[in-house]
Amino acid sequence: MASGDEFCAVCTEPLSWTGFGPCGHKEACSKCIARLRLIQRNNKCVYCQQESPKVFITRHMGDYTNRLNPTDFESLNGERNDLKLSYFPEMEAYFDDAKHYEEIRSLCGFTHPILQDRSLVFRSLNELRDHIEHTHHRSFCDLCLKDRQVFVSEQILYNPSELQTHEDRGDVTGPLANCNFKGHPRCQFCRIRFYDSNELFRHMETTHEHCFLCRRREPKKFVYYDDYDELHEHFCSAHHCCQFQSCIDQHFIVFETEHELRAHTVKDHADELPKLSGAQRRTMLTIPLDRGAYSGPGLTDADATGGRGRGPPRPGP
Ligand SMILES: [Zn+2]
Ligand SMILES: [Zn+2]
Ligand SMILES: [Zn+2]
Ligand SMILES: [Zn+2]
Ligand SMILES: [Zn+2]
Ligand SMILES: [Zn+2]
């Protein structure tokens, strides 16, 4: 097959430069291999998943692509390899083309295509960001910088209104416009945004509260309460909450049915019951009938955020 007919298995761009480890599969482009190895810390072949401790990067020419035998990989050892290849240590990659080696190296630095002056060198992300903000009046999205698994030079720059749209609803144009990205969801309690619904879900589950009784009844409905006080109010209004102070202090002593609460009261508070007045005792043993259990709206919009009586969508795969 001619080289022009083949596409990178990762980014689907036409393959002009490829790379492979000892397994010899040349399905990914050199850029994707660099991204996988340097950013995602993944050294596996994209095709057969075999670990490739070292890779050889060369021009993709179909069946005529330069080969390296599995045994040749063993003799590759850093800068002074016998084959006179350019060596990129962080990537554990050997290039047979010095120019392409430079291209890939520059892709990995603190640089961006918006810079017209190619001679500008930045030693840190902050230096690059400051320069772009002051000179080009564009900024990166901090969440994307942190979690979007691409090179800094592949990160998208926005003006203030584009950044707002990016955060709220997703991009109108560019590489993020045609994928599932619909903005960075926000926790409605803390007002903090998260990279995606998985991150938001993790936050809601660890920082806020949910009712285990409602969750048991409807496992696919995600309703959250800001803190335990709010959850306690819900327990008291929607379920059968033990009203003894010791149980209130202990948290989560709440029951699905009146019958269960009564059983708990008789079993765990037998000593305390005689000390109560008749009226108090009646309160403890008489539970108001269903005052209408809370039924918050379910979440339909994939990017609706968590919040009072609302939950983030179930995390995707
Ligand atoms: Zn690719
Ligand atoms: Zn392979
Ligand atoms: Zn972003
Ligand atoms: Zn929060
Ligand atoms: Zn509940
Ligand atoms: Zn109790």
Task: Write up what this structure looks like.
The radius of gyration is 29 Å and the shape is elongated. β3 and β4 form a beta hairpin. With 317 residues, it is mainly α. Among the domains are: 3-107, Herpes Virus-1, CATH 3.30.40; 116-182, no CATH class. A four-stranded mixed sheet has the order 1-2-4-3, covered by helices on one side. The protein has a two-stranded antiparallel ribbon with strand order 5-6. It has helices at residues 30-38, 70-75, 98-107, 125-136, 142-147, 160-168, 197-207, 212-217, 228-238, 245-250, 258-268, 278-285; strands at 17-20, 55-59, 86-88, 93-95, 240-241, 254-255. Helix content is 33%, strand content 6%. One zinc ion binds at residues 8, 10-11, 13, 28-29, 31-32.
Question: What is the compact description of this entry?
Answer:
The protein is mainly alpha-helical and 317 residues long. The chain is 33% helix and 6% strand. One zinc ion binds at residues 242, 244, 247, 253, 264, 268-269.
Number of DSSP helical runs: 12
**In percent, how much strand structure appears in the residues?**
5-15%
Q: What is the helix content?
A: 25-40%
**In CATH's first tier, which class of the domain at 3-107 applies?**
Alpha Beta
Q: How are the strands of the largest sheet arranged?
A: 1-2-4-3
The CATH superfamily of the domain at 3-107 is known as Zinc/RING finger domain, C3HC4 (zinc finger)
Instruction: Please tell me the CATH architecture of the domain at 3-107 by its name.
Output: 2-Layer Sandwich
Amino- and carboxy-terminal Cα gap: 35 Å
Which hetero ligands occur in this complex?
A: zinc ion
